[in-house]
Write a structure and sequence with these properties.
binds uridine-5'-diphosphate-glucose, 12 strands, globular, 26 helices, single chain, 8-stranded mixed β-sheet, 52% helix, Nucleotide-diphossugar_trans, transferase, two-stranded antiparallel ribbon, cellulose synthase (UDP-forming) activity, 8% strand, transmembrane helix, cell wall biogenesis/degradation, binds manganese (II) ion, 759 residues
Length: 759
């Protein structure tokens, strides 16, 4: 651990102790009322630690067994043994890393009432909300405006709220949708206010609406629903046609920005203040002010890098600083709609706390999704990560920045260091009211040209970090290393809900980008062990590596699921026989870690089948997405390819949606990932059949030597049942194409036949 980090922590602990003592002396009560949040330590820490030590012991025994029993040079199976040994080393080391996030689990509890007592509406700080979208097809404008409308409908003074939409798709369809949303908001916001509507996303709200209770409410509900449906169908029909109707174009001067030549990759900067919060005419049907609403499409030219989402957020930071310049910024992906009307107040409890608030850079909420099925067959819900792992890292006073659902202190995003610095939030908008709207627009556009950032610190010391496809992780790390604290807050009612992938290939592409980006962080200047040395706790450094090592951990997994069945087929034992005492550490390590993971999962309130599904997806990602992520990182390190960002598809055809809801895997497609997936599944099936045959036929061979391999292959086969089904039984669009089936049969057979030459 970095010495400085340690010392700082000691100091922190001492400060806490002092606080406790003061409380004992009877000054506690007043202080408690003053406090705006509290940190609670997770229970069972002691039990957890004892358990972890026993697993560690078992692992050491396994390593010892492997090293002591390496086959001599020239004997069969030496290479296999060595590769399995290395894999087990890797598994063990990775397991140690995963413990770092379970060592100090802690939870945050904000005291909203204390905040509301201390601050009335007048005194509350302004908040800017950034929404990013990048493609009107993959991210339908209707979905985008639902997020925007929910953000506008927060239970927060509208004059303190500004919503900025960055459209990297540069699409007039999205602009049109936003324009329509601004009109609809004049009805929607008062409606939300009157009836405390939650969720504030009209789409989600009307979908969950069954029968109303009061007649007044019912009438209004019906009226608003009709307005919403009208707006939705108009937007969808324009999207269907691919253009905005001529009569609408003439209604707003903003449309002049689009001409025949405008494309996603090539257009001038477009900034439109759709609603200006200071404008007396921007009022809703109750005569109350509306939040400021701004549309932004930064300039894009083919020969200039735009740095994807990081570039978009940085442009938003600059534009918003000229308009509202709020001290706090909420970042949202366009599918992540706010689901709790009071989230802003809860978050401010952390930032505005008198003693601990000033050094908090950001407050991250977990990523949750609205479309999770009962047994979550693509393991989209990240239950354990959200409930335990991120809370575990937050025990060190640091949270990961996950890109969306995160409130930032503006200064922390601008590269400020915390050292000797007292963060303040009484920042005023820079806006010069004397400027005409045209002058202001001109000034704003000049901030988001392609060349604006040349020769500046943007993307390096300022704003979100460039060049890494998980800009969020790298940026969070950089901020923490500048001395800031951060909070991970996982409230009972989900604060934000997004859309999770509904097909396997979309899920795999997303995980490939993540694993690639995170491993890239490890090699970049932001490597937690080097960049973070002496600045963040060792536990945090290791905590990050839980995720940064997703990609390289694909190698030992691949080795295990390929070498084991091949050896089984050829009768080469790799594990102790059943009667050996050395089997115990293997059995204990395996059963206890999986047992623990099972309990952990169930304690998140999900089903046993969900856990089983999670194990399958983990295997799939580790053998495909992470493996390709690994290769991608390597080619990038060698300078052979560049950072990319493939947007996650957020629409599903009816066919796909139906299969998703029935929890049937949608493999579909012809990717090389599917070939690997199918080959691994077949290889284990061959191994299992061969192994069982051997055991039955050749009892003298002391086949109990193979029992462990048989059991492991059996598990892999069981977990792959949906793959065999998709290969041989199913024939719908979600099944695996026959060309891939043939390829994988050939590959698996080749691997089996060629193996003896290699070993
Ligand atoms: O050039 C781009 C590409 C993407 N986006 C936006 O970035 C967001 C996230 O993209 P998405 O395709 O949904 O990726 P996910 O994998 O779901 O995103 C997760 O992972 C990303 C890092 O890989 C983070 O940036 C995201 O916040 C986090 O939700 C979306 O709103 C996009 O519109 C842009 O604004 N510009
Ligand atoms: Mn997303």
């Amino acid at each position: 651990m970095g010495e400085r980090g340690e010392r700082r922590e000691e100091r922190g602990e001492r400060r806490e102790e002092r606080g406790e003592r003061r409380e004992e002396r009877g000054e506690g009560m007043g202080e408690r009322e003053e406090r705006l949040f509290e940190t609670k330590v997770g229970r069972c820490r002691g039990v957890d630690r004892v358990f972890a030590s026993t697993v560690f012991g078992a692992m050491c025994l396994i390593w010892a067994y492997r090293v002591r029993n390496i086959p001599t040079v020239g004997s069969s199976g030496r290479l296999a043994w060595l590769s399995v040994m290395l894999s087990e080393f890797a598994f063990g080391l990775y397991w140690i890393i995963t413990q770092s996030v379970r060592w100090r689990i802690s939870f945050q509890i904000p005291f909203k009432h204390n905040l509301l007592q201390r601050y009335d509406e007048e005194n509350l700080p302004a908040v800017d909300i950034f929404v990013c979208t990048a493609d009107p097809i993959l991210e339908p404008p209707c979905m985008v405006i639902n997020t925007v409308l929910s953000a506008m409908a927060y239970n927060y003074p509208p004059n303190k709220l500004s919503v900025y939409l960055s459209d990297d798709g540069g699409s007039e369809l999205t602009f049109y949708a936003l324009l329509r949303a601004s009109i609809f908001s004049k009805h929607w916001l008062p409606f939300c206010r009157r009836f405390n509507v939650e969720p504030m996303s009209p789409e989600a709200f009307f979908a969950s609406q069954i029968n109303s209770t009061t007649t007044e409410y019912a009438q209004q509900c019906l009226f608003i629903k009709k307005l919403y449906e009208e707006m939705k169908s108009e937007i969808e029909s324009s999207v269907g046609k691919g253009k905005v109707p001529e009569n609408v174009r003439s209604e707003h001067r903003g449309f002049k920005e689009w001409n025949g030549k405008t494309t996603k990759q090539d257009h001038q900067a477009i900034v439109e203040m759709i609603m200006d919060g200071r404008d007396r005419n921007a009022i809703d049907e109750d005569g109350l002010q509306l939040p400021t609403l701004v549309y932004l499409a930064r300039e894009k030219r083919p020969n200039y890098p735009h740095h994807f989402k990081a570039g978009a957020i940085n442009a938003l930071i600059r534009v918003s600083s000229e308009i509202s310049n709020a001290p706090f910024i909420l970042n949202l992906d366009c599918d992540m709609y706010p689901n709790n009307a009071n989230t802003i107040q809860e978050t401010l409890c952390f930032f505005l706390d008198k003693t601990k608030g000033h050094d908090i850079a950001y407050v991250q909420f977990p990523q949750s999704f609205s479309n999770i099925t009962k047994n979550d067959h693509y393991a989209n819900s990240y239950l354990v990560i959200n409930k335990f792992e991120l809370a575990g890292i937050s025990g060190y006073g640091v949270s990961l920045f996950c890109g969306t659902g995160c409130f930032h202190r503006r200064e922390s995003l601008l590269g400020a260091y915390l050292r000797g610095y007292k963060a303040k939030w009484e920042i005023k908008p820079k806006i010069n009211d004397n400027r005409s709207i045209d002058e202001l627009n001109q000034a704003l556009k000049s901030l988001v040209t392609c060349t604006y950032e040349e020769g500046t610190q943007w993307g390096k010391e300022m704003g979100l970090v460039y060049g890494i496809s998980v800009e969020d992780i790298a940026t969070g790390l950089a901020i923490s290393c500048r001395g800031w604290k951060s909070i991970y807050y996982n409230p009972e009612r989900k604060a934000f809900l997004g859309i999770a992938p509904t097909t396997l290939d979309v899920a795999c592409l997303q995980h490939k980008r993540w694993s690639q980006g995170m491993f890239q962080v490890f090699f970049s200047k932001y490597c937690p062990f080097i960049y973070g040395h002496g600045k963040i706790n060792l536990g945090v450094q290791m905590g990050y590596c839980n995720y940064l090592f997703w990609a390289p951990m694909s190698l030992p997994t691949l080795c295990y699921v390929i070498v084991l069945p091949i050896c089984l087929l050829h009768g080469i034992p790799l594990f102790p026989q059943l009667s050996s005492i050395w089997l115990l550490p293997f059995a204990y390590a395996f059963l206890s870690t999986y047992g623990y993971s099972f309990c952990e999962y169930l304690s998140c309130g999900s089903t046993a089948k969900g856990w089983w599904n999670l194990q399958r997806i983990k295997l799939i990602h580790r053998t495909t997405s992470y493996f390709f992520g690994f290769i991608d990182t390597m080619t990038k390190q060698l300078g052979l390819s560049q950072t990319n960002f493939l947007i996650t598809d957020k629409v599903a055809t009816e066919d796909i949606q139906k299969r998703y809801e029935q929890e049937i895997f949608h493999f579909g497609g012809f990717s090389i990932m599917l070939t690997i997936l199918a080959t691994v599944a077949l290889l284990n099936l061959f191994g299992l059949i061969g192994g069982i045959k051997r055991t039955l036929m050749d009892l003298k061979f002391n086949s109990s030597h193979l029992m462990v391999q048989i059991s492991l292959s059996l598990l892999v086969v069981m977990i792959n049942l949906p793959v065999y089904e998709a290969l041989f039984i199913r024939s719908d669009k979600g099944s695996i194409p026959s060309s891939i089936m043939i390829k994988s049969i050939i590959l698996a057979s080749l691997a089996c036949c060629l193996a003896p030459f290699i070993y």
